[in-house]
Design brief:
alpha/beta, Spore Coat Polysaccharide Biosynthesis Protein SpsA, Chain A, Rossmann fold, seven-stranded mixed beta sheet, four-stranded mixed beta sheet, globular
Length: about 475
């Protein structure tokens, strides 16, 4: 018999500190939850007193955190002031829709003006298409704060179509009994169309934050306490800049900062960066990796103030390129672990098996098996992550993004000599995992590199069942 997994609905709640309202809403959410649903709630709040309360910004953070999860279908953004009726189906998100109709506690125009105070249900793909909410508009009266404009401009709804089917709209109730009096004193907001394309760059793609604390509350919700200011301590600055031979590569012409790791295609990338910058030299190991000979500019040449500036500058593309830890460690073993001279020199001991190698590298430190998490964790929320498993497609996407892709580059990448020269350490690691690993060794890697599985969202799935 096939056992079907429960559909997951992620509920994102921006929290403004009112615990009594939160408790009331969570109790209501449990009542409308259906048995066949698996609801996971993410509550996002500022760490400390932030004024004014930035609901849209917190919703964007929640949506970004949801999009990191795998197999996400629906995301519902909810307002703590509103009680959703039990007949709302959170799993019907094939088309973006506004869940509630007339409301007394927010300035509401059915399906036409949709601010962060409204309750919207859409698929994960929809949220990515519209780029979430605005981060720039401080007030919901600002036309940029209208989510309806984003859905319309992106083509997810037709030009004169409303976001909700008024014939089937749900009647939501306000938790705050004094809302009616407040509405009498407020001016209703109407939508004015504009042709702004600012939504393409203002939203999920430029939401900057650090998660200061994450924990599970008594309702089972994941609580995220965030800080919107990206700062660097002296130790974090040293972590980013690193020693010269392992420092991130900077391409000034293309405004690209590339964080790389040994045994994760680094030779390949260094060759590409040499080529697109016109650095001509014979393809040898030394010419690729020798920091004084490869002609590549690194982030160590920046002043600390310049590093902080570019890391917070949206016009710069920041990339970290990584490899699945089991594949990377096996590649390190096949290339370095079986090199007796290398192991004797750096670890004072030779190894004969992957098991011996994994045991030894727990105490023998070297950059070839050092963790690939080489930035303060919160910075990974704001940079692009590339994966070895998608290296070919990622190469084209990245070079196109920074303006370095052309016919000559494409032909150069396809040439046989370049392919051979840029992958001197390729050992078909993935195909050999089953041969070299045991279930216990796989679990060792899960434990040793837990930070990588967490930060880069690698799947902890055993090859040996």
């Amino acid at each position: 018999m096939t056992v079907l997994e429960k559909p997951i609905v992620y509920v994102v709640i921006p929290f403004d500190g009112r615990e009594n309202k939160y408790e009331t809403y969570m109790e209501n959410l449990q009542r409308i939850k259906r048995k066949e649903w698996k609801i996971q709630t993410i509550v996002v709040q500022h760490d400390g007193n932030i004024s004014p309360f930035s609901r849209a910004f917190l919703l964007n953070i929640g949506i970004r955190e949801v999009l990191k999860r795998r197999s996400v279908k629906c995301i519902a953004t909810l307002n703590l002031d509103v009680s959703v009726p039990p007949n709302v189906d959170f799993f019907m998100c094939d088309k973006p829709k506004e869940v509630c109709g007339d409301l007394t506690c927010i300035n509401h125009v059915d399906g036409v003006y949709v601010s962060s105070a409204n309750i919207v249900l859409a698929s994960a793909e929809h949220w990515e298409v519209v780029n979430g909410y605005t981060n720039k508009a401080s007030k919901k009266e600002d036309v940029r704060a209208n989510l309806y404009h984003r859905f319309k401009a992106s083509g997810l709804i037709r030009s004169h179509e409303k976001l909700t089917d008024l014939a089937n709209k749900k009647s939501c109730k306000c938790i705050d009994q004094n809302a009616d009096e407040r509405k009498k004193k407020t001016k209703q907001i109407m939508y004015h169309s504009d042709d702004s394309n600012e939504w393409k760059t203002d939203g999920l793609t430029n939401t900057k934050y650090c998660i200061d604390k994450s924990y599970t509350d008594k309702f089972g919700s994941t609580r995220l306490k965030i800080n919107s200011t990206l700062k660097l301590s002296n130790s974090e600055m040293a972590m980013i800049k690193r020693p010269l031979y392992t420092s991130a590569i900077v391409l000034l012409k293309y405004k690209l900062i590339f964080f790389w790791s040994e045994k994760s295609g680094c030779t390949y990338w260094k060759r590409i960066f040499q080529y697109i910058q016109g650095i001509k030299m014979i393809m040898t190991e030394e010419n690729a990796h020798h920091a004084f000979k490869n002609g590549l500019f690194t982030i160590t040449h920046f002043k600390d103030s310049e590093v902080l500036s570019v890391m917070n500058n949206d016009s710069w593309t920041k990339v970290a390129f990584v490899r699945e830890p089991r594949e990377r460690i096996l590649s390190s073993f096949l290339d370095k672990g079986l090199d007796d001279h290398f192991m004797k020199y750096f670890c004072k001991k030779k190894v004969k098996s992957l098991s011996e190698f994994i045991k030894l590298i727990k105490t023998c430190k070297d950059r070839h098996w050092e963790s690939q998490v080489r930035l303060p964790r919160c910075f990974y929320n704001h940079i692009t992550i590339g994966y070895m498993s998608d290296i070919k497609s990622f190469t084209m996407l990245l070079l196109k993004k920074v303006g370095a892709w052309n016919d000559n580059v494409e032909k150069w990448l396809q040439s046989k000599n370049v392919s051979i020269a840029t992958r001197p350490h390729a050992r078909n690691a993935k195909e050999k995992i089953l041969k070299y690993y045991t279930r216990e060794l796989e679990q060792d890697i899960f434990d040793m590199y837990a930070d990588e599985y967490d930060v880069f969202h690698f799947e902890k799935k055993l090859f040996h069942s």
